[in-house]
Amino acid sequence: MARLIRHTDTGPVELKPCEKSQWVYACGLSQGMPLCDGSHKKARQEDASKLHVYNADRTEVVEACDDK
Ligand code: FES
């Protein structure tokens, strides 16, 4: 069974439980979930008018089609 999940954030969410911030991924591309690893930079290069489909390990776009 496969599942598609739509992520529209292009950066992490800051959590500050103590003095030091923790950055939790929100883009769906992090290899170190639940923490941000900088992979969101790829999302910032996406064409906003397109739906981008990534491969199973979330490392590269395999398809970009019109997002209606
Ligand atoms: S928010 Fe996804 S890796 Fe940073």
Report what the structure shows.
The structure is a single chain. The chain has 68 residues and is mostly beta strands. It has one domain (13-66). Helices cover 6% and strands 25% of the residues. The chain has one helix at residues 40-43; strands at 13-15, 22-24, 50-54, 61-66. The strands form two sheets. A two-stranded antiparallel ribbon has the order 1-2. Strands 3-4 form a two-stranded antiparallel sheet. A hairpin with a 6-residue loop joins strand 3 (50-54) and strand 4. The radius of gyration is 13 Å and the shape is elongated. The mean pLDDT is 94. Bound molecules: FE2/S2 (inorganic) cluster.
| Sheet having the most strands | 2 strands, antiparallel
Number of strands: 4
In terms of quaternary structure, what is this?
Answer: single chain
Radius of gyration: 13 Å
Strand-residue fraction?
25-35%
How would the global form be characterised? elongated
Bound ligands, each once: FE2/S2 (inorganic) cluster
Distance between the termini: 25 Å
**Percent of residues in helical segments?**
under 10%
The overall number of domains is 1
SSE pattern: EEHEE
What's the layout of helices and strands?
Layout: E1 13-15, E2 22-24, H1 40-43, E3 50-54, E4 61-66
Antiparallel strand pairs: 1-2, 3-4
The protein binds FE2/S2 (inorganic) cluster (FES).
